[in-house]
Design a protein that fits this description.
Chains A, B, C, D, E, F: Homohexameric ring arranged as a trimer of dimers. Chains A, B, C, D, E, F: This is Ribonuclease PH. Chains A, B, C, D, E, F: It holds the Pfam family RNase_PH_C. Six copies of one chain form a homohexamer. Chain A is an alpha+beta fold and about 240 residues long. In chain A, about 30% of the residues lie in helices and about 30% in strands. The first copy, chain A, has five helices and nine strands, in the order ββββααβαββαββα. Chain A has helices spanning about 75-80, 85-100, 125-145, 175-180, 210-235, and strands at about 15-20, 25-30, 35-45, 60-65, 110-120, 160-165, 170-175, 185-190, 195-205. The termini of chain A are far apart. The interface of B and C includes residues 38, 67, 72, 83 and 119 of B. Strand 9 (about 195-205) of chain A pairs antiparallel with strand 9 (about 195-205) of chain B.
Chain lengths: ~240, ~240, ~240, ~240, ~240, ~240
């Protein structure tokens, strides 16, 4: 039933390449099938003004797409002079999710900036971004400990994210672009590896969905995300 | 347990005033307790460029806060020269929710612009906005039928929205500002009066939440939103 | 002769509602007939950089219109990314007028920000803004004295403003929208309750006006503004 | 009494140089003493969208200051990315004043853009701009007639402008910078050579002014502007 | 003498990977040692307004750097809301160089947009961009011929670019970051494979350079660029 | 052969007027034939943040064109809200060139801002800007020494600039607008009066140029610039 021939709950092959670029404290290329995102984590001393003197750190994030990561070229946001609402929304989501993974007190007055740049898009860029960024974050935290910038590990748990949706009336996991653009409902779920929820965003694109369908999607998301945790762990070993 | 003395599932008094201002085709002042939002619906001929010639209409929305709707004055976005990520995110949410309430084909090549302007904020401004905007939308659609701009009623169902959350470990409905700023989890739910879901956005602010807690919040949201449908219907009669 | 049936010097009914919203130190809804403006005064410690260390305070103002305060929807300035020249001009006028009402030295190094947001427009929004803002300012100054932020009353005199113009060849006071859009000349006058002038702005829209007509408009403005002072005083008692 | 040694009603020497630059249809360097402004009038076919098909023309204006036209360098507005409120206010004033001098119907569907660029500032830049721009406009209209773009002369009357004010308690005309920055009241007056008023803008900078003082300033302005009309006529012959 | 141990005229290893991403008509990853740039060529029907109806095509370019392509994180230009002068200068250079390689008439009324996104920077990003973009352009032109969008090959000649400079008093080719940041003079040269010059940009960073030194750098550039032509040809076969 | 009747190497008459405006520390009107540029040098205490505490000064530059300095009116950049890529590129070129003329250490922690505003354009505005700015810079440095802001003369050598190009197959110097818009190649050369090069920027507009042609243009540029040094010296005596 799925254009890709996958079973309803089956996610795409996931590849996580660490140290993808040379300069960032954490740098990961994550691939969910044909979706490819470079996730970097940059460590900087100091915190934004609103946090100064509170003895804790901060994590922020920015998301972007290369203009030709998509089927037809999108206008470059730097040249348009502003980021779209969608870009800002995803940036805020990534940052919020990663902050929930870390004990900001243990981070000291340092800031980690996550950059997620999509070089090829085929659906699920925001969930790939979160999943890849968490690995880049771990590398950045390890760098900070190695450099004695922090003394303890601020990571509370790993996080990962998947999209689920209702496609042709059936719940499916990890929608690719052909599914995403035709889905009745689209839901993004961010979870911890302790089995708890960080973020749930479900949207009826065409048809409202029932409480029952939501339940099914949540269960499917849980299974899918557990596979992502396996991929993260494999990459980190 | 709640600062306001309300029971966990109890929402604030809801007041809906139609024809609040004179010029808009639909104009509603909605109050969720101390939260007050002016929602207007403006009818314009034509559709955005990407829809031209497709024989269907469009609904868009913009959200704003008066600078001193809040405890301390916020910078005016018009003067700052850009809307915050939060503002854009809420504008997109309102528009998406209302589009899901309407058969865009039946709207013809017309655009309805929803403006939700918060004049006093005490938590729950986005859910009050959606709930009030739906009433303003009904008035605008009635105007269009009275003026023979459209022949059938494009409204598929009413929609309304409520926030629920985990506050001091307990699920509560319709959080006011003191609760909202201290909640562990915050979830906004948009529903149809046919009992289906349009949008679910749950965010762990402090602590991840369990699948179980999510279930409880969803059930509580369902009950609360049904009260909002009663208030909408009373206002429209 | 006037569309509203008023006599040439007759102003519209004026209503001033104090404490219109909850958070601002001064909050007034002023109505000049169908023109409705929310005026808030916000007190903040400190002054803009150019005044630092000079031992005096500052008053600034921002004017805005809700997008559908007008007959047809205007573009939201926050979304357009800039304020129009008209908006900035009115903001500057309001601020200048209110600064002229106050002894800035007696204000200490504090800033009062006036926000005038038009929720319904029917001509005369800038003069209603100034007249309402002066009442909000008084409330804010009273708040400051009650909180011991200042020791003396910085208010030198009340101010109020009216528009006058030449409409169908005759001087008229307090033009509403149908008059304003057809007037040959439009003049805004800001006065003190000690009978002096703060600001006079007269513009020939269609036909140049004579020194004589200017004289007549000034006299008419004086009488009209005195009625506004009565309305302000009634509201403050 | 005046820093420059002038008598109260005496204006500075006025010099008007036509054809100051080569490309514009009208190009004037106007000097009010040490204040020097380049005023150009550019003729373009067509009108702004809101006037299309109405069979009449348009006049618009833009005002600017070279960064080092002032005592200390101002930030370049092109580099700051926005024009100040003051700049926009003056641009609007110049355009309004010149439109009042012309029969827009007789202009046909053409636009004249006035650019007033201050190369040296010593007070009175906006009144010098209007006075010089009117001469540039005449040259541009003559060009249009010579090229058969228009058949009749759209000019209804010449216009000119002067600043008057209360300085050390006395009304004075044509304030230079030392006076302008210390004046109690500042008033800009735009007049036609038929003795009528186009624009009056009086502002109390320090002290409110009386109706009487306003009268005196108006009379002084009238005399001063008549001298400007002489200078304009001399330049045009 | 060179930090990398290279001889003065020796360039870094060059790798050119075609079809690096899936969607663009031409997509190349080019590596000059540790400098890595994704160059895509996107074909779109139509031309910018200023070329409409002239029967010829257009090539434009945009350059960008991922925020963490550099040693310390740069601010994301999309978030800053504007592109730096450097970014715009390089974008203009790339576009100009590629336009010089193509017969725009033979391109028909089509536009090719080149995007050069630096994912890792180690000096020479603009010359790597031009060299890689030319290969992406060839792929895009081949696509256009295969799709019968154009009938003849618009390519007049290949182009490639190299940086040369004076480092510690000696001319060197293909400066990496440590050299680039310490060089006395920096010169970028764009050449055709027919041995002619498209662009020469030489800048004294510290010390003016002699006519003689310029001569030496030009000769060195010519040799280096010939190696780049070999790399391009190898990649295209 | 040249539209102006000049011989191939002949430059236009050069006029340099010092103290052209009153306020700037250095103010020069430079004319290359019909090209006229006001160049001012403004001295300010302090340096940009990235230089603080390094004990040296800074020179920056901004270039602009009056909207009607050109044949047809250009949009005012201040009103467009951004500077074009061309404007920024020229600003950066001017600043870089002048910094190369000065020992920044000897300047102390002071900033000199160069403004080059074109009031009439006929080709070669950037080279006229650099040549005139150098004279304004000398005046500003003399001012600083007279005021004891600096103790030694930071000027290392004079600089001047000329454009050369290939026009109808022949090398020519100091292209005016008719030549510039038709030239096959355009090259700007900045030199010191000690015979060395600061900047060389050659661009093939239509046809690639040979190494030989480049050689010829460089020789022609050298002769032309020497005439500019004579004009500068005459103006400074």
């Amino acid at each position: 039933m799925r254009p890709s021939g996958r079973t309803t709950g089956q996610i795409r092959p996931v590849t996580i390449t660490r140290q993808f670029t040379a300069h960032a404290e954490g740098s990961v290329l994550i691939e969910f099938g044909e979706t490819k995102v470079i996730c970097t984590a940059s460590v900087e001393e100091g915190v934004p003004r609103f946090l100064k003197g509170e003895g804790k750190g901060w994590i922020t994030a920015e998301y972007g797409m290369l203009p030709r990561s998509t089927h037809t070229r999108m206008r470059r946001e730097a040249s348009a002079g502003k980021q779209s609402g969608r870009t800002q929304e995803i940036s805020r989501l990534i940052a919020r999710a990663l902050r929930a993974a870390v004990d900001l007190k243990a981070l000291g007055e340092n800031t980690i900036t996550i950059d997620c740049d999509v070089i090829q898009a085929d659906g699920g860029t925001r969930t790939a971004s979160i999943t890849g960024a968490c690995v880049a974050l771990v590398d950045a935290l390890n760098y900070m400990r190695a450099k004695d910038i922090i003394q303890t590990n601020p990571l509370k748990h790993m996080i990962a994210a998947i999209s689920v949706g209702i496609y042709k009336g059936e719940p499916v996991a990890d929608l690719d672009y052909p599914e995403d653009s035709a889905a009745e409902t689209d839901m993004n779920v961010v979870m911890t590896d302790t089995g708890k929820l960080i973020e749930v965003q479900g949207t009826a694109e065409e048809e409202p969905f029932s409480f029952d369908e939501m339940q099914q999607m949540m269960t499917m998301a849980k299974h899918a995300i557990n596979e992502l945790f396996d991929a993260q762990k494999a990459a980190l070993n």
